[in-house]
Amino acid sequence: MTNSSTIMITGANRGIGLAFVEKYLQQGDQVIACCRHPGEAHQLHSLKRIHKDQLQMHTLDVDAPESIEQLANKLSTARIDILINNAGVYGPKGSVLGEISQNDWQKVFTTNAIAPLLVCQAFQQQVAQSQQKIMVCISSKMGSMADNSSGGSYIYRSSKAALNAVVKSLALDLYNHEIKIVALHPGWVQTEMGGANALISTTKSVDSMVRVIENIDENQIGRMLNYDGTVIPW
Ligand code: NDP
């Protein structure tokens, strides 16, 4: 187990987050799986029965700064090789022009843009302990201005665009600490958020993203990358 990495994942109880947990466990890595209600995370508990010594489960509501601080204190001596900010929400699906509410917008912003920054901030020391020193934020092509040809989705698009701005600044600020950070678009993925018509499975998305994360090069730092590693324009 000497060559194994330690990966921390937020929103690890279902969807893309759970697929990351499964993938890294299969690779023999150590996984710190974080979710709002570990007691109810039945799929994580099933994985724990198989991978007893590799999987830790922790409570983390990324919307609550005190929850982030509590976990950072609890894991203060941990080494985190790869920190994956995956937790995210879409917000109300029917939110069209004329029906946008400030309250809905603030909630989505909190989870998608503010929380990843607070998590990176709180766990910077643990990532700095690692040789790999990687942070990842799961963003979305829907946050790209260049890619927006259909309008709408004001809340989700703007929250992911804000997340991309956060990633760019973190990349510059953390560069001298040798911490590499990227925003990753997972593809249109079959999850509760992506829906049944989505194009790819969580396995395909995550297998591909894990390869991209393992091979981040200098030119990719601070960019938004597709799940196949190609750069997506802002
Ligand atoms: P799901 O809706 O299937 O899962 C979302 C996950 O985020 C759940 O584990 C959920 O936990 C968690 N979460 C939400 N809010 C919080 C919170 N406050 N604290 C902790 N965890 C929280 O979505 P996906 O798996 O599809 O999405 C994962 C990421 O990928 C998101 O950032 C999303 O924006 C992004 N993405 C997804 C795409 C897709 O096609 N699926 C496309 C582009 C980007 P809980 O069960 O407690 O609600």
Describe the structure.
Pfam families: adh_short. This is SDR family NAD(P)-dependent oxidoreductase. The protein is α/β, with parallel strands linked by helices and 234 residues long. It has a single domain (6-225), classed as NAD(P)-binding Rossmann-like Domain (Rossmann fold). Helix content is 39%, strand content 15%. It is built from seven helices and eight strands; from the N terminus they run βαβαβαβααβαβαββ. Strands 3-2-1-4-5-6-7-8 form an eight-stranded mixed sheet, sandwiched between helices. β7 (224-226) and β8 form a beta hairpin. α1 crosses α7 and α3 (65-74) packs parallel to α4. The radius of gyration is 17 Å and the shape is globular. It starts with 5 loop residues before the first strand and ends with a strand. The mean pLDDT is 97. The structure holds NADPH dihydro-nicotinamide-adenine-dinucleotide phosphate (NDP).
Distance between the termini: 39 Å
- The CATH architecture comes to 3-Layer(aba) Sandwich
Bound molecules: NADPH dihydro-nicotinamide-adenine-dinucleotide phosphate
Poorly predicted sequence stretches spanning 5 or more consecutive residues: none
Q: Which sequence of strands runs across the widest sheet?
A: 3-2-1-4-5-6-7-8
- Strand tally is 8
**CATH topology grouping:** Rossmann fold
Relative helix content: 25-40%
State the shape. Answer: globular
Structural class: alpha/beta
Q: What is the total number of structural domains?
A: 1
How big a fraction of the residues is strand?
Answer: 15-25%
The chain-level mean pLDDT equals: 97
Rg from Cα: 17 Å
Number of helices: 7
Largest sheet: 8 strands, mixed
Family: Belongs to the short-chain dehydrogenases/reductases (SDR) family.
Protein name: SDR family NAD(P)-dependent oxidoreductase
GO molecular function, one term: oxidoreductase activity, acting on the CH-OH group of donors, NAD or NADP as acceptor
InterPro entries: NAD(P)-bd_dom_sf, SDR_enzymes, SDR_fam
